[in-house]
Amino acid sequence: MRLYRFLSEDDTSAFCHKVTAALNKGWDLHGPPTYAYDEKRGVMRCGQAVTKEVPGTYSPDTKLGEH
């Protein structure tokens, strides 16, 4: 099955570390990163979609972060 996750974080090194951790667990980048201004908090936010092919059958109970 193919899994999909969307990672997001404030525009700090924490976002880069989150994406790097996913890549090192076998996730692949899917498309370009996104950036948006969070007006309420006054910060830029980053997002990156990642996908991963794993054995098994998908169900809504699948724990994406455990793969």
The helical percent reads 10-25%
Oligomer state equals: single chain
**DSSP summary, beta strand count:** 3
Q: Shape, please?
A: elongated
**Contiguous helical run count:** 1
**Rg for CA atoms:** 13 Å
Low-confidence stretches: none
Side-by-side strand order of the widest sheet: 1-3-2
Distance between the termini: 12 Å
Average predicted local confidence, pLDDT: 94
> What structural class should be given to the helix and strand makeup?
alpha+beta
Give helix and strand order, one letter per element, not per position. EHEE
Strand content: over 45%
Largest sheet: 3 strands, antiparallel
Give a quick set of tags describing it:
single chain; 67 residues; alpha+beta; 1 helix; 3 strands; 18% helix
Short description:
By secondary structure, the chain is an alpha+beta fold. It has one helix and three strands; from the N terminus they run βαββ.
Describe this entry's structure for a reader.
Helices cover 18% and strands 46% of the residues. The chain has one helix spanning 13-24, and strands at residues 2-10, 28-38, 43-53. It starts with a strand and ends in a 14-residue tail after the last strand.
Question: How are the SSEs placed, and which strands pair?
Answer:
Elements: E1 2-10, H1 13-24, E2 28-38, E3 43-53
Antiparallel strand pairs: 1-3, 2-3
